[in-house]
Amino acid sequence: MKSFKYVLLGGGTASGYAAREFVQRGVEPGQLCIITSEAVVAYERPALSKGFLLADKPARLPGFHTCVGKGWERQTPEWYAEHGIEYMTSTRVVSADIAGKKLVLDSGEEVGYEKLIVATGARPATLRELGVPGAELEGIHYVREVAEAQALYDAIADCKARSARAVVIGAGYIGMEVAAALAGNGLAVTMVFPGGMLMERLLPPEAASFYEEYYKERGVEVMWGQRGAGFEGEEGRLEAVLLQDGRRIEAGMAVVGIGARVNKELFEGQLDMAKGGIEVDGRLRTSNPDVYAIGDVAAFPLVGYGGQLQRQEHVTNARLSAAHAVSAIMAPEETGDYEYLPFFYSRFFALSWQFYGTNKGKSVMFGDKGAAKFGMYWLAEGRVVGAFLEGGSAEEFGWIKAVALRRPEAPATEERLAAKGLAFAAAVAAQEA
Ligand SMILES: Cc1cc2nc3c(=O)[nH]c(=O)nc-3n(C[C@H](O)[C@H](O)[C@H](O)COP(=O)(O)OP(=O)(O)OC[C@H]3O[C@@H](n4cnc5c(N)ncnc54)[C@H](O)[C@@H]3O)c2cc1C
Q1: Measured between alpha carbons, how far is residue 421 from residues 116, 284, 388 in Å?
Q2: Where is the FAD/NAD(P)-binding domain (predicted)?
Q3: 12 CB within 6 A, ligand 1
Q4: For ligand 1, is residue 278 a contact (CB within 6 Å)?
Q5: What CA dihedral angle connects 12, 17, 18 and 21, to 10 degrees?
């Protein structure tokens, strides 16, 4: 059995940033092994629904291997080899033996560890598992891994050649980004989702309506209050999407973004679970002292939010939790609790927004929707606890981040806060400096 001091299970975004931190902290050649079922080494996953799908000069590997998302060195396969890191690609771990401190690979081989970091992320929830008729047809796409994004990209070209429509099912960030990319590629696009408004999990209707109008103006057909109830095809290939209300949309392709399932099954019954993932403490350590979990799979205590356990399926958490876990392993005396400020961003068409903190509480909108520059504050117990901004500059995004970090007292009235708008955040940031 091969054995390593450190094993990183999963080769996604968190894994790439963990590898960087190991190297920064002086891991020795031969001490670290990374195992991933993907055929390539770690990359910046958010690129798959953005730059990867662009009509013009799409992003391709090796261009977006980690850690270019932070402007740091691009870790190609050669980088891992140079640092003496053993990287097993196209290798699935099929079982884990926590008591015996070993993993079993799909080849039947075993890999032992002293410390294990679980970075298995998540996979798309599928309509097939929900039993939707026709969900197995060719032409129905999901996007999580680079191979899937490539298949989607090829399908776009095929649809274009056949002048066929694309249907996007789901209006979370994947649905929003993919629909924009498909429209940007010149396809006719219909979005179908069960809610009443795009982005309604994040934004209240007065802000969310902006996005619906924006998409419609760019030719995207928006069908809310609808689920993909079934698919029709011929010779195994998608021909139409069927809606709940009986309508039928002819389609050359469909892209499904209806949420994710956490890859935690290997550890069920062996590690404590919480919030649909693996429970960790402030040092990203699981219920077993030699096993850590990072990224999407980890349910960690959110400092500043009463230590509530939360999972965050966001790239910033993947990067920061990775570095924190490695620091906790290699420099325990200088590592405190993981302090994370919930953050999310997205880009579609010419739009770009950021969100910090929490969207629980009363919302107050500010700015100018007509100029595509507006924002939102959330108030709870007299404090501003979250902030969203569309169309901000880097400096302005920094201001709203300062608001969510400091949670300042709210002005006396909501009207006053709305009138102050971004100036309120600027003042908070100035106090921070
Ligand atoms: C298309 C897309 C766009 C996104 N855009 C944004 C965005 O704009 N902003 C944002 O904040 N977040 C975004 N995210 C979310 C972000 O990418 C994730 O939060 C991040 O990738 C999580 O990193 P991770 O390493 O925990 O998991 P992942 O990056 O998913 O990596 C998990 C890895 O583990 C491997 N693995 C799993 N099980 C096994 C096994 N048994 N054996 C071997 N290998 C295994 C997988 O193959 C994969 O390589 C996006 C996600 C997707 C899919």
Answers
A1: 46, 37, 11
A2: 5-319
A3: yes
A4: no
A5: 160
* Ligand 1 binding pocket includes 125 (Cβ within 6 Å): no
pLDDT exceeds cutoff 80 at 304: no
Which residue's structure tokens are 């939102």?
Answer: 376
Residue 414 has pLDDT above 90, yes or no: yes
Domains of the chain: 2-46+61-122+261-334 (3.50.50.60), 140-258 (3.50.50.60), 350-432 (3.30.390.30)
Q: What is the pLDDT of residues 31-76, one digit of tens each?
A: 999 999 999 999 999 999 999 999 999 999 999 999 999 999 999 9
Distance 44 CA to ligand 1 centre (A): 9
* Pocket of ligand 1 contains residue 263 by CB under 6 Å: yes
pLDDT in tens, 118-128: 999 999 999 99
Query: How many angstroms is it from 273 CA to the middle of ligand 1?
Result: 19
CA distance 282 to 321: 10
| Contact (Cβ atoms closer than 8 angstroms) between residue 360 and residue 367 | no
In eight-state DSSP terms, residue 312 is: -
- pLDDT tops 80 at residue 145: yes
Residue whose Cα lies nearest atom 15 of ligand 1: it is: 314
Within 8 A by CB and 6+ apart from 393, the residues are none
Paired tokens of 15: 């894994």
Which residue CA neighbors atom 16 of ligand 1 most closely? 315
Cα separations (Å) of 208 from 196, 197, 365, 424?
Answer: 10, 7, 11, 22
pLDDT at 432 over 90: no
Q: Which two tokens stand for residue 164?
A: 């066929």
Cβ atoms of residues 106 and 91 within 8 Å: yes
